[in-house]
Amino acid sequence: MRISLFLLLATFSSSAQNFETVKIASKLFNYEVFWGNDISGKHFFSKNNTLYKISKLDTLNYANNNFGNFSSVETFNMLQTLVFYKENNAFVLLDAQLNEIKTTIFSEINCEFLKPASQNELWFYDSLSQQIGLYNLNSITFKFLSNPIKNIKYSQSDYNYLYCIDTENNAFSISKFGKIKSLGKIMSFEKVFFLSQNDLFYLFDGKIYYYTFENQISTRININEKLIENFCFSDGFFSIFTNNQLSTYKINK
Length: 253
What we know:
By secondary structure, the chain is mostly beta strands. The protein has one helix at residues 2-10; strands spanning 20-28, 33-37, 43-47, 50-54, 59-63, 72-74, 81-85, 90-94, 100-105, 111-116, 121-126, 131-136, 141-144, 152-157, 161-166, 170-175, 180-185, 191-194, 199-204, 207-212, 217-220, 230-234, 237-242, 245-252. It has a 4-stranded antiparallel sheet, with no helix packed on it. Strand 3 (43-47) and strand 4 (50-54) form a beta hairpin. It is globular, with a radius of gyration of 18 Å. The chain starts with a helix and ends with a strand.
């Protein structure tokens, strides 16, 4: 998925970006939080600490009150949904039908965030050592990849990289081999969606922008929705959640 996003946006001019957007769908959903879509287009919401996976054909749900409230739900792997419970240092892996595959409470680390990686591994940040690492689901082992890093306020992953932003809005990536790359400074934001190590979308003050690190240029995306609570982007389509409504926009150069 990330490769196709990069190829889509790599065709845009580096000096001035011209985006055309077309609203193609809008539907009411009576849920509290929109977590995103998987690569097959299914939507993930939650309400009253119950997770819902919605397709055109059916709605699946999952609830587990043993670990408290959801801290994050990672949805881009259509075969495995990762649900993280920060307050209890635990996570649950769900299959495509939202059945539990694995349930784990960490004792070796104090996990600040947890993100999916490739080859049955998960990115983690241990607040005790302040290090980033990989947790192997098969061998149940931890591999620390970084020196201590402080003040991470945002994180996102794909299969090969973990992207982070600190409290000074400096962005960096780390590979599965432990190589850290400084990406640059970004604008003030409320939500970020990394496309690659070169560019991203971000939400600020109710508007969505496209941003490139190389040129430090922000271009507003023409999406006229009020009170945007969350958004995701996949293969040329934005999903925008606002006031119990999910709207879909197609983006073109």
